[in-house]
Amino acid sequence: MKPALSIILVNYHSGTFMYNCVQSIVQETVGVEYELILIDNSPQDGAAKGLLQSFPQIKYQALPANEGFARANNAGIALAKGEVILLLNTDTIIRQNAIGHCFERLQQNEELIAAGVQLEYADGSPQVSGSFNLTGGLNFLMVIPYFGRMLRWLSMQIGVKKPSIAEAVSDTEVDWISGAFLMVKRSAIRQAGPLIQTFFVP
User: Record keywords: DNA-binding included (predicted)?
Assistant: First the structure.
């Protein structure tokens, strides 16, 4: 049966994190037929060997060297059979069927092209999971040391939309979603094209 969802993981010296991530996916995900795809950016460390023995259903592809985030995920997308793709960091732990619920909500709304979830740190505190683009050149000025901090404060004082959501308490439309958990419809990938290969991130 063709999977509805393809979950893509990229290994780069992930070790135990990767094993715990896959285990949580298998234990927690219900309500959706999915496949697991592992793209290995560090096959020489042997971390994937034990994982594949424990979870033989994983589709595996080793890359010749560390190709980075974008190239590795593009390789996974090329292997994927699902009409919905989830890019998932290997240091995440899935709880409360987050994948199944996110998939269901995304499929219910034809206008949405992508979705994410509220990320949390290990202590349970909220982690930024989505953000807005600021108007015009402000995006580039915000990263300047000291000046960017002052500009951020000033923007908040005059009511400019916050660039990031500290905690999503309900469904919120954002301009971009964290790549740690990024679920996107294949139709959007067809329209936008693959990830930009020069976006490396080890």
Answer: no
pLDDT digits (tens, 9 = 90+) for 134-175: 544 444 444 456 555 555 555 555 554 555 666 666 787 877
Q: Do residues 11 and 90 lie in contact, with contact meaning Cβ atoms separated by under 8 Å? A: yes
Which tens digit of pLDDT belongs to each residue from 41-70? Answer: 999 999 899 999 999 999 999 999 899 999
C-alpha–C-alpha distance, residues 147 and 106, integer Å: 38
175 DSSP 8-state letter: S
Residue spans per domain, the chain = 5-121+168-192, 130-164
Q: What's the predicted TM-score (pTM) here?
A: 0.83
What architecture is domain 5-121+168-192?
Alpha-Beta Complex (3.90)
Which residues are within 8 A (CB) of 66 and not within 5 positions of it... i.e. 6 or more apart?
A: 12, 41, 42, 202
Rounding to the nearest 10 degrees, give the CA dihedral for residues 139, 183, 62, 200. 0
Q: What is the layout of strands, in order, in the sheet containing 181-185? A: 59-62, 34-40, 5-11, 84-88, 181-185, 114-115
- Determine the Cα–Cα distance for residues 121 and 102; give it in Å rounded to an integer: 19
Distance of alpha carbon 127 from the chain centroid = 13
3-class secondary structure, 68: helix
